[in-house]
Every structure is written in structure tokens, then in C-alpha cells.
UniProtKB/TrEMBL annotation:
Pfam families: FA_hydroxylase. It is found in: Membrane. The chain crosses the membrane at residues 24-41, 61-85, 105-125, 167-189, 195-217. InterPro entries: Fatty_acid_hydroxylase, Sterol_Desaturase_Related. GO terms for biological process: lipid biosynthetic process. One of its GO terms (cellular component) is membrane. GO terms for molecular function: iron ion binding; oxidoreductase activity. It comes from Turneriella parva (strain ATCC BAA-1111 / DSM 21527 / NCTC 11395 / H) (Leptospira parva). Signal peptide: none annotated. This is Fatty acid hydroxylase.
């Protein structure tokens, strides 16, 4: 991160370059590596874990790669604009570096929990908003063209949706002072989970979606169903809002059981053939 500097075009340029590098260097190597391993190199080995058995066409994958760059640029612009506005005194809030400030680790742990809950809530209701007919066809359809998404679809958003996806952090840091590395850790975790939900493979245990505790944590199958069926399964990390609002697909747990049963059957068949 560039040293704290006076607000200037040079400073804004340094911040923009740092954020652009950070966004691109984090996203493409990780999403790309997941794609190469599961969708190219070892796709035969991992086929039994695949949620949708088919593979998308190459032009769809190229679109996901290119459109993700739009999202990364929008995220960068949000970061630079927020920095500039806060330095100029137009935005409240604080992103601080001293880990001992505000009571140290207990406060930092509180902000980790708070930003996760806030992100979950923001995402669910924003997601339902962009599924409204008029907004869907102009904005969210870009993401839903990936009916069988790859990891590279994680940031495949229309520019307006990318703005809606990223602005929750600006709101949070305006209201809650946040330590710099808590913020960096949260954005990295959010990116990893987004890639995971778009992986197209299910590795969680068979009883996960119906377990009394674990069912409150989402799965790759949960979000994959959203891409395949559109109007349902809107939540992000947790299955809280979908369950209390009744927006889970009714056959989610059944479908999850079918996906995991397929891999058990294929493993049993392979063992029997030896």
C-alpha cells in the first residue's frame, strides 16, 4: 500500500495503481488456477464431484474472463473514489492501521463478524433487487448468461452490478472504523468464497445441506442451482435469509443429496471394477 500522502492526482494515481494490481493479481491467478485444475487438467478425475455434468462452450468462458476485468476496474474506481472523498472530508469513517486502537483484537474480531453479517445482508437484498424484471434484463442478465458457471464467472458482472457488489464496504467503513488488514482479509475471503460458489463442483459431505447446524452454511450446489434455475437461492455465505424468507428452492436439499449420491455411486462402481 502506498504511504499515506496528501490528496493529489499523483497520490490518487498511486492508490489506483496499487488497487488495480491487487485486484487483478489476486483474482485471475486464483480463479484461473481453480479453472485449470478442475475444468481442464483433472476434469476427468473430478467429474464425479461436478454439479452439472456438461461443460460450457469456450466462448462463454472467454466472456467470463473479459467481463471480470470490468468488475475489477469498477472495484478499483470505488476504492480510489472512497479514498479521495475521505481524504477531502466528504466521507465519515476511518480505516486505521494501529491494531491496538479501539481496544485491539476484541474490537477487530467484532468488525470481522460485523462486516460478514453486513455483507450477507446487503448481498441478499441487493441480489433480489437485481432479479426484478426491469433490472434483471439490463443488469443481472450479464452474470446469469453463465448457466453452468466456471470459477471465472465469480466476478462476471455488469458494471452497475459490480458497483452494487462493491459499495457495501464503503457504507460499512463510513459507519464502523475498520482496521486495514481486517478489510484486506475480508475482501480476500469474499473473493475466495465467490470463486468457490462458482466452482461447479461439490466437495462438502453428503449430509451437509440437511444437517441441523451445517445447513445454515451455503454450498457450491446452492449457488449453482441459482444459476441453473434463476429465481431462488439468493444468499451468499449463509443460508439464513433464504430460509427465513422462503426463497430457497424447495428441492435444494434433495438436489444436494443427488449430487453427493452420484459421487458415492461412481466411487463404489470404480472400487467394484478393480
Amino acid at each position: 500500500m502506498p504511504a499515506i500522502c496528501e490528496l493529489s492526482w499523483q497520490c490518487a494515481g498511486q492508490i489506483a495503481l496499487f488497487q488495480l494490481k491487487m485486484n487483478f493479481v489476486r483474482y485471475y491467478p486464483i480463479a484461473g488456477l481453480a479453472f485449470v485444475i478442475f475444468w481442464v487438467w483433472k476434469k476427468g478425475y473430478f467429474q464425479r464431484f461436478k454439479i452439472q455434468q456438461a461443460f460450457p462452450r469456450s466462448e462463454r468462458i472467454r466472456y467470463e474472463i473479459l467481463q471480470s476485468a470490468v468488475t475489477l476496474i469498477v472495484f478499483t474506481l470505488i476504492g480510489v473514489a472512497t479514498f479521495a472523498a475521505r481524504k477531502a472530508g466528504y466521507l465519515p469513517g476511518e480505516i486505521y492501521r494501529d491494531a491496538g486502537k479501539y481496544g485491539g483484537w476484541p474490537y477487530m474480531i467484532f468488525t470481522i463478524v460485523a462486516v460478514t453479517v453486513w455483507h450477507e445482508t446487503w448481498f441478499y437484498w441487493m441480489h433480489r433487487l437485481v432479479h426484478r424484471k426491469r433490472l434483471y434484463k439490463h443488469i443481472h442478465l450479464v452474470h446469469h448468461k453463465s448457466i453452468n458457471p466456471t470459477p471465472l464467472a465469480a466476478y462476471n458482472f455488469h458494471a452497475i452490478e459490480a458497483f452494487l457488489e462493491g459499495i457495501y464496504l464503503v457504507i460499512f467503513t463510513c459507519l464502523v472504523p475498520t482496521q486495514f488488514w481486517v478489510l484486506m482479509g475480508h475482501t480476500f475471503y469474499a473473493m475466495i468464497m465467490n470463486i468457490w460458489w462458482h466452482l461447479g463442483y461439490e466437495f462438502f459431505p453428503a449430509a451437509w445441506a440437511s444437517h441441523p447446524i451445517l445447513r445454515w452454511i451455503n454450498t457450491s450446489t446452492h449457488h449453482n442451482m441459482h444459476h441453473a434455475k434463476f429465481d431462488g437461492n439468493y444468499s451468499l455465505y449463509f443460508n439464513f435469509w433464504d430460509r427465513i424468507m422462503g426463497t430457497n428452492f424447495p428441492d435444494y436439499e434433495k438436489h444436494y443429496a443427488e449430487v453427493t449420491a452420484r459421487r458415492r455411486q461412481e466411487r463404489a462402481d470404480a472400487a467394484a471394477a478393480v
